Amino acid sequence: MRFFVTGEQRRQTLLNTIVLMFMGYIILLWISNGLMYFHKMGLTADSVVEYYLGSEEKFTQPRSYQSLLEVSHFHLFSMGMLAVTLTHLLLFANLSATLKVWLAGLTFASAIADEAGGWLVRFVHPAFAYFKITAFLTLEFALAALIVFVGASLIAQRFEPRQRSEEVSRNSARVGEEARSRG
Description:
The chain is mainly α.
C-alpha cells in the first residue's frame, strides 16, 4: 500500500500491471456476484421472500439458521477483504477526499446490510425483502464505482510517464533551439 500512498506506483509498471490484472479478477467477481443473486432470486420482494422463507408451491424449504450462518461466515470475511482492498486502492484515485470517504463508507455499509438482509427476511419480517434488494443494488453500485475509479486511475497513470517524457523531450528540443538561436 506504501506504493499507492507515496505515488511510487507511477514508477512501478509491474506493480501497476499486477493491480490492473487484479481489477480484471474483481470485475469477474462482481459479475458472478450478480449472477449468483439472480440465480436465486430477483429484484421483487416476492422472490426474496420465497428464497428465504421457502415456497409450498415449489416445495422449497426455508433457509436454515445453519445455512445462513455458513454463508455469513464466508461472506463477512471475503466481502470485508474485498472492501478493504478496493478502498485502499481508492487512495490513489484522483478524487476528492470527501468522495473517497463516502464511497468507502457506502461499500462497507452496503456489504453488511446485504448480508443482514437475508437474516432479517428469514427471522424478523418478510418486509425486509425490500431492504435486501436495496442493499444488494447499493453494494453492486458501490463495487462498480470502486472498480471504475481505481481502474481509470491506474490506466491514466500508465500514460502519465509517457506524456511527461514527451513533454520533457519537447521542452529539451525547444531549449536547445533557443540556445542555438542566441549563440
